[in-house]
Each structure stands twice: as C-alpha cells, then as structure tokens.
Specification:
Elements: H1 12-32, H2 36-44, H3 54-75, H4 88-103, H5 109-123, H6 128-143, H7 145-151
Length: about 150
Amino acid sequence: MTGAKRADGIDPVARTRSRRRAVQAVYAWELAGNPMAKVIEDFRHEQDMQIADLAYFEDLLRGVEAHCTELDAGLAPFLDREIDRVDPIERAVLRIAAYELKQRLDVPYRVVLNEAVELAKRFGADNGHTYVNGVLDKLAHAWRQDEAAAAS
C-alpha cells in the first residue's frame, strides 16, 4: 500500500493500481482461457501486486467472471457492435467498470468512469477512451439513475 489512505481506510492509489492490473488480468483470462483462479494466482506473485489493493483486485476479477453474462447484457444496448467485436483491452475495461457500476455501489460512478477512461488511454487503442467513456456514461445513467441525476 502507499500509505495515503483516506479516513475510511481506502487507498485510492492502490485501487488504481488494482484496476490497472485487473485490466491486464481480464485480458489474459480471455486470451488464454485459463480459469480465473489461475489468473489471480499468477498475478498474485508479481512484484507490482505488493503496492496494489489485492483484495480489490481479486473482487474485480471474480466479479467479472461471475457476472460476465449480466455485464455484457447491460453493456449491449450502448455498444455499436457485438461485445466480442470490441477491442479486447476496451472490452476488459468496460467489463471491469460495468462490474463496479453494478456491484460496487461504494465507488462513486464518476470515479468508475474516470478510472476506466484513464485505463483505456493507457492500454487501449487510439481514441478508444472516447468510446469507453460514451458507453459507460450511458450505462451509469441507466444503472445509477439517482446518483447520476444528483450529480447533474
């Protein structure tokens, strides 16, 4: 951990690192077809994981695996193509963010969107972050109507 924890004990920098590693892990999971438990175990032994929030990382991965069909169905109305035709990195980012929007109500939707856009900028195709932002903004307004309305 970085030591920059908030009053509630959450280290935002460690969570950002967890999301970064989660994108790589979801990508690896989909590409290799290995069970998520093996992917988690492989990533757990990496040096970078020592400065990430391992519990959050594992929650994201297990959540994406367990809810993948539901997440894809939620994303589908906002995509301009089938989910399996979306760039694999952007698909991983979308699934992780969709999981956070649906299951991690403790994370404000604006944080989810910002983190996803930054991940897409870092790992995705050129301008992929604009696609990710557009899809997730619509999804957030559908899944977190009250929170989005209060922010407007």
